[in-house]
């Protein structure tokens, strides 16, 4: 069987997680290192080409090389380096306290432009990270699973359309429908003044990255990032973004705290299911599962043999 890779954009860290000049990260089987200097933040393969030592554990940046901790070979940063030993560099975006990595130039799906535009128009607040013992795609798929919202969260969802947009991302639009029994009614009262129908758009840019935009009188965005550590576990990171034209440049922190608190509560309820779901048997989908099927078809486009990667 050919070794396979996850393509597209993934959030691999918050800025606050980078305490050293070299930080180890992983995207499934791909071991990477974030190299942080006063002038730049870059991401490279972590395996030393000489004997495979992990460059982030004991390595040091000196100029345009990393000194390998095992044999002190100087490893060039990027394949354009003239050094005998060198490591591949990957595309990186460091925006709004979030660090995103793309393993190839394929499957941008409009994300780089979208996140830069949001950075101009929104105030970003990094939220929290949580380890999930389940595949990353299952976490992002959860947003497209309209059938689970009422049983798990006591909120109804009307999904009006699911479309693969020309830029390559998958978009679902619809409305969240609240009533007095909803477990998220407290959030509705705090954020949207008892509005019963809140329009939303959910955009998936990769199997591990989506942006949820909720409307109403108190609109907000949530960046939902699930970074695969292996085939069966991931790190979930949540970031809140509020539009400047509604909240100004310094949004109310209690509002943001409420959003994050309610998000964590909702995720904890989902987490129990994600970590105990059986993925070994074929699903018997119903017609209402059409958004989930669309998301799984979307994800299938991101898997390819390593030999076919274009960097």
Which characteristics define this entry?
311 residues; alpha+beta; Naphthalene 1,2-dioxygenase Alpha Subunit, Chain A, domain 1; 2 domains; seven-stranded antiparallel sheet; 7 helices; 19 strands; 22% helix; globular; disordered C terminus
Concise summary:
This protein is α+β, with helices and mostly antiparallel strands and 311 residues long. The chain has helices at 111-121, 136-141, 149-153, 185-192, 244-247, 253-274, 290-300, and strands at residues 4-6, 9-14, 22-27, 30-36, 41-45, 60-62, 65-67, 74-77, 86-87, 89-95, 98-102, 122-132, 156-164, 170-177, 197-206, 209-214, 220-230, 233-243, 303-305. Residues 305-311 have low confidence and may be disordered.
Tell me what you see in this structure.
It is built from 7 helices and 19 strands. It is globular. 33% of the residues are buried. It has helices spanning 111-121, 136-141, 149-153, 185-192, 244-247, 253-274, 290-300; strands at 4-6, 9-14, 22-27, 30-36, 41-45, 60-62, 65-67, 74-77, 86-87, 89-95, 98-102, 122-132, 156-164, 170-177, 197-206, 209-214, 220-230, 233-243, 303-305. The strands form 4 sheets. A 7-stranded antiparallel beta sheet has the order 12-18-17-16-15-14-13. A 6-stranded antiparallel beta sheet has the order 2-11-10-5-4-3. Strands 6-7-8-9 form a 4-stranded mixed beta sheet, with no helix packed on it. The protein has 311 residues and is of the alpha+beta class. It has 2 domains: 4-102, Rieske [2Fe-2S] iron-sulphur domain (Rieske Iron-sulfur Protein, 3-layer Sandwich); 111-300, Naphthalene 1,2-dioxygenase Alpha Subunit, Chain A, domain 1. Strand 3 (22-27) and strand 4 (30-36) form a beta hairpin.
């Amino acid at each position: 069987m050919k070794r396979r890779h996850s393509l597209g954009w993934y959030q691999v860290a918050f800025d606050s997680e980078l305490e050293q000049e070299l930080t180890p990260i992983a995207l499934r089987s791909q071991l990477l290192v974030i190299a942080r200097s006063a002038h730049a933040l870059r991401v490279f393969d972590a395996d030393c080409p000489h004997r495979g030592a992990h460059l982030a554990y004991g390595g040091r940046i000196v100029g345009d090389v990393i000194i390998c901790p095992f044999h002190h070979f100087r490893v060039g940063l990027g394949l354009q380096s003239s050094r005998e030993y060198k490591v591949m560099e990957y595309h990186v975006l460091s925006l709004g306290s979030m660090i995103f990595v793309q393993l190839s130039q394929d499957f941008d799906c409009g994300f780089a432009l979208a996140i830069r535009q949001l950075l101009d128009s929104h105030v970003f607040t990094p939220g929290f990270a949580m380890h999930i013992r389940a595949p990353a795609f299952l976490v992002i798929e959860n947003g497209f699973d309209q059938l689970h919202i009422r049983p798990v969260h006591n909120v109804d969802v009307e999904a009006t359309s699911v479309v693969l947009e020309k830029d390559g991302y998958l978009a679902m639009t619809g409305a969240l429908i609240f009533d007095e029994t909803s477990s998220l009614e407290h959030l509705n009262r705090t954020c949207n003044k008892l509005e019963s129908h809140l329009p939303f758009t959910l955009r998936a840019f990769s199997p591990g990255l989506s942006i949820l935009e909720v409307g109403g009188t108190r609109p907000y965005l949530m960046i939902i990032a699930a970074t695969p550590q292996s085939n069966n576990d991931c790190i979930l990171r949540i970031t809140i973004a509020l539009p400047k034209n509604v909240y100004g440049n310094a949004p109310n922190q209690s509002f943001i705290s409420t959003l994050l608190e309610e998000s964590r509560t909702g995720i904890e309820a989902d987490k129990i299911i994600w970590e105990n779901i059986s993925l070994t048997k074929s699903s018997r989908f119903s017609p209402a599962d059409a958004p989930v099927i669309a998301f799984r078809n979307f994800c299938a486009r991101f898997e390819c043999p390593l030999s076919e990667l274009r960097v």
